[in-house]
Predict the structure of TetR family transcriptional regulator.
Amino acid sequence: MGSVAGPLGHTRVMKRPAWNGAPPRDGEEAKARIIDAAMRCIDRHGPGKTSLSDVAGELGVIRQTVYRYFPSTEELFIAVGYAALNSFLERLVAQLVGRRDPADVIVEAMAYSIEQVPQDPYLGLFLDLGRPDAFSRGATSVRAFDACRVAFSRTEVDWDELGLSGEEFTELLEFLLRVLLSFVNDPLPGRSGDDLRAFLRRWLTPAIQASVPTA
């Protein structure tokens, strides 16, 4: 908002136009713009200090407009997490380039995720707000499973050739996501880097070998 002097010297407050003067074409565009605004607010204020009022102000709308598309703060934050998921998985796939042993791929994927998820201002949003239950629901949703399945299919391991496809592969992803959640919700102090990878390799590899023969 800005202000101008009136004819008698009074100051008039000028309202910023809704949606900053460019209303969305449809509901999908509105949701996308709300998510983008939420990300900008998180960048500016930090995850724990971002409110729906901040997001509404960023867009030049009232809070009820945001609620129309996201009935709760939790739903908006979960949408932000999903929006960031693809970017995170791109980085994860790049981290796994050159690895062909399935156990090595899984251990590195887990270690990288354990280290990076809490540092990501969007994926770690629920943790910063004390919402591990919301994070857990988002991470074990069908949408998360599908995204992880696509990411693992882009590694240099031929999971189908190893006999992992369909329901078996879904079970493996569920196992990995649940292990990841336990680490993210209750971190092990001082366990990172090579020590973290050695720990995961010692206990995860036998479970993986039970279903996936190592190369």
The first strand starts at residue 2 and ends at 5. Residues 14-71 form a domain with the Arc Repressor Mutant, subunit A fold (CATH 1.10.10.60). The chain has two domains: 14-71, 78-215. Residues 20 and 108 are 44 Å apart (CA to CA).
